[in-house]
Every structure is written in C-alpha cells, then in structure tokens.
C-alpha cells in the first residue's frame, strides 16, 4: 500500500469505444484506473466515448463529469422516445458541452484528444485532432437514422463507430502500451428480444471485425461483461452502467495489474 501511495502517477494512452448509454461506463473504468494512479496520456475515442474523453482531456475528474451529467440531466435528455421523435436531439449535448468545457478547441486541451467520425459519403474514418471540439464530438456521435449527419467544412459526418468502434489508429504512430476500453460486449443471441435489441445486435455484428483486429493492438483491454445487460438506449440507467464499468475494472486490475515499468 505504501508503495502505491508513493508511486508517481503513470500515464498511458487510452482508446474509448462508442456504445450509446453504455459509454457512461468509460467514467467508471477511468475512475478505477485513477485509483491505481494510472491516467490518460492521450485519448482516442468515438461516439459516446468521445463525450467522456472530451471532459477528461479538458482536465475534469470522473467524479466531476458525473456531477455535470447529474446537474444538467444530460442522460435523461437523450432517452429513447418513439420512432417519430427519436432522440430529443443532440442539441442538449451541444449546449452542455458549450457551457461546461473549459476549452473549446483541441489545441487547448490539457491532454491530447483524437475524435473519429465517419465520412457519410465515402465511409472512411476521419480523425479530428485540431480546431473546434464540439462539432467533431457531435459528428462522432450522430448515429444514422436517429440523427442527421453533422456538416464540417462542407463534408457530412456520422457516428465514428461505423468506420471503427475501437479507434486505435490515431495513437499507433506516437504512443505505446495502449489501453483499450470497449463497452459493447456481444451477448448470447435471444430471438425473443425486442426490435430495438435486434437492431442493436445487427449493428454490433456489422462493426465487430475491425474491433477484434484493433483489440490485438492494445497492451491491455477492458470489456466489462455485465454491460451486455444494458442497451445503447438505457440512458435512465447511467448510474448502474457506471458502477458496472467501475467494479469490473477494479476486479480486473486486481487480478491482472497493468505493467507500470517504462
């Protein structure tokens, strides 16, 4: 215990996946790492992961981000309503980001951040690492059919998970010992599940292969198994999602500590 208390903080690059409401588990995962004095050296993220990453790279602690979500009721603003209305919109997300982020550009952040979105014309991955933060985050989070594409410099972008839901690519050239966090465990197929569950499963299967390939490039990989009981639209269950990520990662770090040398 004394050794842990006197050890200087360790920095490691992280890659955070998308996952809708399950993206809130990233805060629990990062909280568990911080308890071991391990913090992001840089973060590459997409979709819901990019929202969490923006706050962390802007110098917020995980507890402070949770308080922002609570005060602004950000989770409740995104819950599923019906096919006609869809989500309420990403407007609330944009407003909260504008009000609470201390910095509004990538260059001003305390920790390097890479946000990936998908070019809606070509399907190619686009990496944002400079310029305005909020448009890139909204583009990375705009799930097709639920949100309209976000236009940046004349190009239409949608959810980054479609071109790579574990976007390790921006980190490979400059960083080593990358920690991957994926919040979309593939659960056993249940034909009795509802329409939305089947749509979600179809999406996961469609984007799974690149995730498995990028997982092999991580030196340490976290995928909380219990997150399979939550859907990507379970925004009313954020605290349970957070706890699932936190407790799983605590157990994992106890069983298999991160190599801290170097």
UniProtKB/TrEMBL annotation:
**CDD domains per UniProt:** Pat_PNPLA6_PNPLA7_NTE1_like (cd07205)
- Pfam families, per the entry: Patatin (PF01734)
> What positions does the domain PNPLA occupy?
14-172
InterPro entries in UniProt: Acyl_Trfase/lysoPLipase, NTE, PNPLA_dom
Q: Where are the transmembrane segments?
A: none
Q: Which Gene3D superfamilies match?
A: Cytosolic phospholipase A2 catalytic domain
PANTHER family referenced in this protein's UniProt entry, alphabetically: NEUROPATHY TARGET ESTERASE/SWISS CHEESE D.MELANOGASTER, SLR0060 PROTEIN
Q: What is this protein called?
A: NTE family protein
């Amino acid at each position: 215990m004394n050794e842990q208390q006197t050890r200087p903080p360790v920095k490691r690059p992280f890659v955070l996946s998308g996952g809708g409401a399950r993206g809130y588990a990233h805060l629990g995962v990062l909280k568990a790492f911080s308890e071991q004095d391990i913090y992001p050296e840089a973060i590459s993220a997409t979709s819901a992961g990019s929202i969490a990453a923006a706050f962390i790279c802007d110098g917020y602690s995980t507890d402070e981000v949770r308080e922002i979500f609570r005060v602004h009721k950000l989770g409740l603003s995104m819950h599923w309503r019906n096919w006609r209305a869809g989500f309420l919109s990403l407007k609330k997300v944009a407003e909260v980001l504008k009000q609470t982020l201390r910095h509004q550009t990538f260059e001003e952040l305390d920790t390097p951040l890479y946000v990936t979105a998908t070019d809606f014309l070509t399907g190619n991955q686009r990496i944002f690492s400079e310029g305005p933060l909020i448009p890139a985050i909204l583009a990375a989070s705009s799930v097709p059919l639920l949100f309209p594409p976000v236009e940046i410099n004349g190009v239409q972008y949608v959810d980054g998970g479609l071109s790579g839901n574990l976007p390790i690519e921006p980190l490979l050239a400059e960083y080593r010992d990358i920690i991957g966090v994926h919040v979309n465990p593939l659960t056993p197929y249940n034909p009795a599940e509802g329409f939305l569950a089947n749509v979600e499963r179809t999406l996961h299967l469609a984007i799974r292969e690149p995730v498995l390939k990028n997982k092999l490039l991580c030196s340490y990989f976290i995928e909380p198994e219990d997150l399979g009981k939550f859907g990507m639209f379970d925004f009313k269950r954020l605290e349970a999602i957070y706890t699932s990520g936190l407790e799983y990662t605590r157990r994992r770090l106890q069983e298999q500590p991160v190599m801290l040398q170097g």
